[in-house]
Amino acid sequence: MDDRRPIMTLLTDFGTDDTYVGQIKGVIAGICPPALVIDLTHAVRPQAVEQGAFLLETALGAFPADTVHLAVVDPGVGTERAGLAIRAGSHIFVGPDNGLLSCVVPLGLRPAEPSRIAVPAGVTAVALRPPPARVVAATFHGRDVFAHAAARLARGGAVESCGDPVDSLVALPPFRARERPDGTLEGRVLHIDRFGNVVTNVHVMQLHGRSLAAKLGETRIAAFVRTYGEGESLVCLIGSSGFLEIAEVNGNAAARLSADLGASVEVAPAGL
To answer: Measured between alpha carbons, how far is 262 from 142 in angstroms, rounded to an integer?
Structure first.
């Protein structure tokens, strides 16, 4: 008999100053008491759907099959946008249909710009129905719709039981830099961690082992290192998720460079 506790992850832009996260966990506890709820983060920037999608996608590899991922970064809450429950591969996802759950779409099928695409083969997606006999607050679907669905799924419910099938969903482009014909990569800042490390969408596979230098704003960083403790001042390295980061040794690169989400990053062969 399998007596393992069901695992759920929770990712939001709610922060921890208010009771929102606690209320979501209360709903989950009432429906699926054994669930082990793991906080991925509640520090996604407010309404920063792309950042939330990136953090969710890069965390998936740490979790076992049948994990339920509840993600709520939902600037369109209460509007006509749908809520989704999705089974993709061995994982289940619940959240708004705004691109936050783009990780269910293989990289090769992602659109060039945020847009609605067909649900990929092998992926099951439904538009969530509100829980029966519940008053749903227009401003808090995370508690009143998504948490209910995620908890029922963690308890063993089928995705198909949560709503009506959909044939399309909103997807974001792959988290990859644009490659120019001369080999230069045009990237962007997707995340800044609490240490001030600037995480970009330049993936290690795009570097092809070349000697490169990165430029953010007017600052060029030519030192590529393996760890945060190597080198001096500003350095580049490949972080644990496989993406290029700009760091400052024993410092805060984001503050040093006045970097923020969406800032352009250029990566070019070291001689250019």
So the answer is: 26
CATH code for the structural domain at 7-171: 3.40.50.10790
3-state secondary structure of 163: strand
Digit-coded pLDDT (tens) for 195-204: 999 999 999 9
pTM assigned to the model: 0.95
pLDDT at 22 over 90: yes
The answer to whether the beta carbons of residues 91 and 59 sit under 8 Å apart is no
**What architecture is the 178-269 domain classified under in CATH?**
Beta Barrel (2.40)
State which H helix or E strand residue 125 sits in: strand 123-128
In 10 A of CB 90, how many CB atoms? 10
d(CA 101, CA 54): 9
Rounded to the nearest 10 degrees, what angle do helices 20-31 and 147-154 cross at? 40
- Residue 184 structure tokens: 């230069």
φ, ψ of residue 63 in degrees (nearest 5): -115, 145
CA-nearest of 106, 11, 6, 123 to 66 is: 6
What residue segments make up the domains of the chain, in order of their start? Answer: 7-171, 178-269
CA distances from 92 to 124, 140, 227, 238 (A): 9, 21, 34, 29
